[in-house]
């Protein structure tokens, strides 16, 4: 069962403005990365369902995070079907994210009052997802769909939308400022926040520093 309710999840997404996205088959690396982000001010983290036995890692991380990062809201991403959503909800996922919109996932999450943020690439997809009860829709792949201008234009007719963008997001001031000024609720960030050489070198302080820096740019852009 989720430790955080829907209001807490959506509020944390809005207040921090950034959701790191990460997967590694080594649970110790996952713990170090999550802890580094947490120390950098991150309060919402997406663990991606991309490797074999990923759900087993997730279950262990949920229990670990409850003790080591008590304010962290941990969710599962790359969820493309309802059975997988159920699996992660049973393991304690506080939110579900997908690269696509699957209308079968929405009622599964709605019954538990757990946010489902599906990937959308058009106004029609976003509107359909909202009608299904999705409070936050993810524009993906954000860079290919149209970038900040797409978000800005969508918010014209769908001005009530809460948009998260993933893809083509990097932890530098210009990039983050462009997304925030376009009107996104938050950004999702993966490889640009966790370079392979940094993970290989186990330079966890780099990740903490980069999170502090990125969150600072987001706060500045909002002000």
From TrEMBL:
<dbReference type="InterPro" id="IPR000887">
    <property type="entry name" value="Aldlse_KDPG_KHG"/>
</dbReference>
<comment type="subunit">
    <text>Homotrimer.</text>
</comment>
<dbReference type="Pfam" id="PF01081">
    <property type="entry name" value="Aldolase"/>
</dbReference>
<protein>
    <submittedName>
        <fullName>4-hydroxy-2-oxoglutarate aldolase/2-dehydro-3-deoxyphosphogluconate aldolase</fullName>
    </submittedName>
</protein>
<dbReference type="InterPro" id="IPR013785">
    <property type="entry name" value="Aldolase_TIM"/>
</dbReference>
<comment type="pathway">
    <text>Carbohydrate acid metabolism.</text>
</comment>
<keyword id="KW-0456">Lyase</keyword>
<dbReference type="GO" id="GO:0016829">
    <property type="term" value="F:lyase activity"/>
</dbReference>
<keyword id="KW-0119">Carbohydrate metabolism</keyword>
<comment type="similarity">
    <text>Belongs to the KHG/KDPG aldolase family.</text>
</comment>
């Amino acid at each position: 069962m989720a430790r955080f309710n829907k209001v807490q999840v959506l509020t944390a997404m809005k207040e921090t403005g950034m959701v790191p996205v990460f997967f590694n088959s080594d649970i110790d690396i996952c713990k170090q990365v999550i802890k580094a982000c947490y120390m950098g001010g991150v309060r919402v983290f997406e663990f991606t369902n991309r490797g074999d036995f990923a759900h087993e890692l997730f279950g262990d991380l949920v229990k670990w995070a409850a003790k080591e990062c008590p304010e962290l809201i941990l969710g599962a991403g790359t969820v493309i079907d309802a059975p997988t959503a159920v699996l992660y909800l049973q393991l304690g996922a506080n939110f579900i994210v997908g690269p696509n919109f699957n209308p079968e996932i929405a009622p599964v999450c709605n019954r538990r009052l757990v946010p489902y943020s599906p990937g959308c690439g058009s106004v029609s997809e976003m509107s359909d997802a909202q009608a299904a009860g999705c409070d936050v829709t993810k524009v993906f792949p954000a860079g290919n769909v149209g970038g900040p201008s797409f978000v800005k234009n969508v918010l014209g007719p769908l001005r009530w939308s809460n948009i998260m963008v993933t893809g083509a997001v990097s932890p530098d001031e210009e990039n983050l400022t462009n997304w925030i000024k376009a009107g996104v609720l938050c950004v999702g960030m993966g490889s640009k926040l966790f370079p392979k050489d940094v993970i290989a070198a186990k330079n966890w302080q780099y990740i903490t520093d980069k999170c502090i820096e990125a969150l600072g740019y987001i706060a500045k852009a909002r002000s």
